[in-house]
Design a protein that fits this description.
317 residues, alpha/beta, TIM Barrel, 8-stranded parallel β-sheet, 3-stranded antiparallel β-sheet, 14 helices, globular
């Protein structure tokens, strides 16, 4: 049996990204109901809002689901306490030291996966005793690694560094990409952008439309002086590029970034002055779909690609 399916007790080794402003209860429960692992994105939620989303997810699925928690969250203690109190069984952590919460969460029967952007941190994850590792290449949307290591390079490197169940992320939006990641050593995949463009995503319709409109080159990794983040090109990104070209300091960039810029773009739909975090794979997403349709396409594409590959091998390739 597939290690990710066995670990999380799911049908398919597909994890939905816990994206801020996109991954509410409706998306998480829909992905879980379709056989994957849905994640609530707590990074854009106040503690009481997270509790509500956990309750609604429980009401809408009897399948396993989890919560994604950026460890730089200002209310981290309260967030973790809610997760424990509500009996959530799976937590994905990111943006911090995996040792900070892994053992405490596991002591409450919670399985923990941690997101890394380079293979060096695979060893830190092993030391922390995480149950799974997400290796995310720089194609991914949102906050990213400074090394700019692609998924194609990161996955075999991480696989060499650890025997822990490995989930590939970044640039994966199809079954054929899923097959490629697993051929490189991943046990499963995490998909964000494709699910951001779903009917059940909590993102604003304007943002979803921008994902569908995106083409190759529509996104860029920027704000490297602060925390690298991949965004869709718009007026705000142009202002950031202009500031960086004139040598703006980190403080000046923080002032330009302002408050709640991501909420403005992804949740409120300001496509000019908002921050719109999405991956490079948006360039090949050409329609909005319900989650069950997305899942079916990915699985069918995976199986077709695998069959074609096997047929090619039989013919002597």
């Amino acid at each position: 049996m597939n290690r990710i399916c066995e670990l999380f007790e799911i049908q398919y080794p597909i994890v939905q990204g816990g994206m801020i402003w996109c991954s509410g209860w409706e998306l998480a429960s829909a992905v879980s109901n379709a056989g994957g692992l849905g994640l609530i994105g707590s990074g854009s939620m106040y503690p009481d809002v997270l509790r509500t989303h956990i309750h609604k997810t429980k009401q809408n699925t009897d399948k396993p689901f989890g919560v994604n928690v950026p460890l730089i969250y200002p209310n981290i203690e309260e967030i973790m306490q809610i997760i424990i109190e509500e009996g959530v069984k799976i937590v994905f952590t990111s943006a911090g030291n995996p040792k900070a919460w892994t053992k405490q969460l596991q002591s409450h029967g919670i399985k923990v996966a941690h997101v890394i952007a380079n293979s060096r941190f695979a060893a830190k994850c092993d030391e922390a005793g995480v149950d799974a590792i997400v290796a995310e290449g720089f194609e991914a949307g949102g906050h990213n690694g400074r090394e700019e290591t692609t998924t194609m390079v990161l996955i075999p490197s991480a696989r060499k560094a650890t025997d822990t169940p490995l989930i590939a992320a970044g640039g994966i939006g199809s079954g054929s990409a899923m097959l490629a990641a697993m051929a490189l050593g991943a046990d499963g995949v995490q998909i964000g952008s494709r699910f951001a463009a779903s009917n059940e995503s909590s993102a604003h319709q304007n943002f979803k439309d921008k994902i569908v409109e995106a083409v190759e080159g529509s996104t860029k990794l920027t704000l490297k002086q602060l925390i690298p983040v991949r965004l869709i090109r718009n007026k705000f990104l142009n202002e950031v590029e202009a500031a960086e070209q004139r040598g703006a300091t980190s403080e000046e960039l923080k002032e330009l970034l302002g408050h709640a810029r991501a909420k403005k773009g992804m949740f409120e739909g300001d496509v000019d002055d908002g921050e719109m975090e999405i991956g490079q794979v948006s360039g090949i997403i050409d329609k909005l779909q319900p989650v069950d349709g997305i899942m079916k396409e990915i699985i069918d594409s995976y199986r077709l690609s695998l069959n074609n590959l096997c047929a090619g091998n039989k013919s002597g390739f």
